[in-house]
What does this fold into?
Amino acid sequence: MTTTIDPNLKIRFEKDVKPVLGKTLGLTNPLSIPTLKKIIINVGIKKTDSSEKDVKTAQTELMAITGQMPKINGAKKSIAGFKIRTGDPVGVSVTLRGSKMFDFLDKLCRIVLPQVKDFRGVKAKAFDGAGNYTLGLTEQIIFPEIDYAKVEKVHGLEIIIVTSTKNDQHAYELLKSLGMPFEKGETK
It folds into this structure.
């Protein structure tokens, strides 16, 4: 009998990864095993004459990437030096949970990151001390949902992976077991 690997990361996590991760970390209580809580994807928008169009474009692209409608984030206070007033759109963001979160992480680790030019892995130093990982990408065009020919402006995005643990080492082991391609030889 041959064993097959389930293509769904959420099912794979529950069946295969979670029990092994518990043993690796020495955790006997299944509720203490670290899990993913949410993934936040954020795109900042520069203040320009065409920023209203840029916001709509970023919103459309982020919706194509994540499969969920992004919210527009407004400035919390006015900053005269940047010519920003309270409420002006400064970015768009999406919070993914559940199956969409696992699907996005699987796509990010197996499809998107490996096709980055000269990719050697992501840094293990990007943990925040509370078990969360932040990853910055310089171009949205590396996602397969974005049509390179239709892109007017290339912009970056920030991906924040929030875990249930407050321990960076446990979060590192969780992401590593889920397929996050960390640099070789680098550990948390």
In short: Helices lie at 9-25, 51-66, 98-112, 168-177. The longest strand covers residues 36-44. The chain has a mean pLDDT of 86. Residues 12-17+35-177 form a domain with the 50s Ribosomal Protein L5; Chain: A, fold (CATH 3.30.1440.10).
